[in-house]
Amino acid sequence: MIQTPDIERPTRKLIDDLSEIGSATASAELNRLGIRDAQLRGPVAWTEGKAVVGPALTLQFMPLREDQYSQDEYDDPEKQLHRHVLYHTQPGDIVVVDARGDMASGVFGEMMLTYFKGKGGLGVVIDGCIRDYPKAKGLDLGLWLRGVTPNYHTQTGIFPFAVNVPIACGNTLVMPGDIIVADDDGVVVVPVSLAKDLADSANEHVEWEDFSRMKLAQGGDLRTYYPLSAEAQAEYETWRNEQEE
């Protein structure tokens, strides 16, 4: 019987604290915390308007070699590790897949994604493709993909090799249990060790940007209000105090 490891999930509070910041703010603030480039390049949003934050279940594909993997689509399903990563799904999880940028293999199809959704999964990030997109897009999952294909997962040149191990998705390291922040701007990976510091700095950033956006919409001077100048700081502090009353 195949056994695959589960992940250690961050606290619900930590996820909630990151839920409003967005990928752009997460990327910028992580840069200030020492992570120069946290973006997963390659996968882009295929479900416009979806934004998710959650821990990463990881799946690694390798180049197909017949002595290591020779299963047909439905032969001995339990040997197909793309199923096993989904078995670990808990509400709020996100599956992140290193599919090697392959554009000819559909890592998951509608049935697998329906199961994932039913288990409470939020979204998938795949450096590669899914299939059954016309039906999958109606599942209300976040989909960040390179593309879509009619082929199934091992039909051409790759096969699922490992579950919940460190992977390189979009040439960016993702550790099992890392926090994913994904929206229409893209996907950012947050090391759990930096998540609290990110939440503290990013939520402050979001707050002063709300003030700046309001002032700019009212015709305020860009040099004064973005970023906040010293002369605008006192005005911002007064506004923030008023919001808390």
Concise summary:
This protein has 245 residues and is an alpha/beta fold. The protein contains 8 helices and 12 strands. Helices cover 33% and strands 22% of the residues.
Major β-sheet profile:
8 strands, mixed
Q: SSE string, helix = H, strand = E?
A: HHEEHEHEEHEEEEEEEHHH
**Regions with little confidence, pLDDT below 50 for 5+ residues:** none
Anisotropy-based shape? elongated
Separate helix tally? 8
- Count of beta strands: 12
Q: Per DSSP, what share of the residues sits in E-state strands of 2 or more residues? A: 15-25%
CATH superfamily of the largest domain: Ribonuclease E inhibitor RraA/RraA-like
Radius of gyration: 20 Å
Number of domains: 2
The CATH architecture of the largest domain: 3-Layer(bba) Sandwich
Q: How much helix, percentage-wise, in residues?
A: 25-40%
The secondary-structure class comes to alpha/beta
Distance between the termini: 59 Å
Please give the CATH class of the largest domain: Alpha Beta
Mean pLDDT: 93
CATH topology of the largest domain: Glucose Oxidase, domain 1
